[in-house]
Structure prediction request, 65 residues.
Amino acid sequence: MRKENLRCPMCGTMNYDVDLDATDGWTKCRLCKAVTCSMDERKKHTVSVPLLNEKQLVARSMIRK
Prediction:
């Protein structure tokens, strides 16, 4: 069980003894009720999506035909 004191990025309120293991890194502010995730936890759940330029997009559409 990992409990931490976290400051809300929206309103700045300090949230004490937040159990991040139980919520997979997500927390709800006790004052403004904003639901946020710490950057370290967010990186674990983030997937990179490649951006295609116009040439790549045209080439991919030709392959699918």
About this structure: The mean pLDDT is 82. Strands lie at 3-7, 14-19, 26-28, 35-37. The first helix runs from residue 39 to 44.
